[in-house]
Design brief:
This protein has about 90 residues and is mainly α. It has three helices and no strands.
């Protein structure tokens, strides 16, 4: 009996398994590297600063401007005295 080398089918199957494993491993490594990079960017990025509401009684230019707009709306009859007072209290934090 003459001994022959591995069959072509066996060689192709082995190659497919090796290639599939290599693809899976490299894909996993790529995903892990991307996750690490995202985590590092998130850690390095400054946290967004939320605008702070003025403390009670603090009169900023923005608050003064909004109060003037509310007063104009009240003077035009668009806002009632009660609506004006409620919005003013909200702006002043009272």
């Amino acid at each position: 009996m003459i001994r022959r080398g591995p069959s072509l089918l066996r060689v192709a199957a082995t190659t497919a398994v090796v290639a599939g494993t290599a693809t899976a491993v490299s894909g996993g490594m790529r995903n892990r590297q991307a996750q690490k990079a995202e985590a590092q960017q998130a850690a390095a990025a400054p946290a967004p600063v939320a605008p702070t509401a003025p403390s009670a009684g603090e009169m900023t230019d923005e608050v003064i401007s909004q109060l003037k707009q509310l007063a104009d709306l009240k003077n035009q009859g668009i806002l009632t005295e009660e609506e004006f007072a409620a919005q003013k209290a909200k702006l002043l934090g009272a």
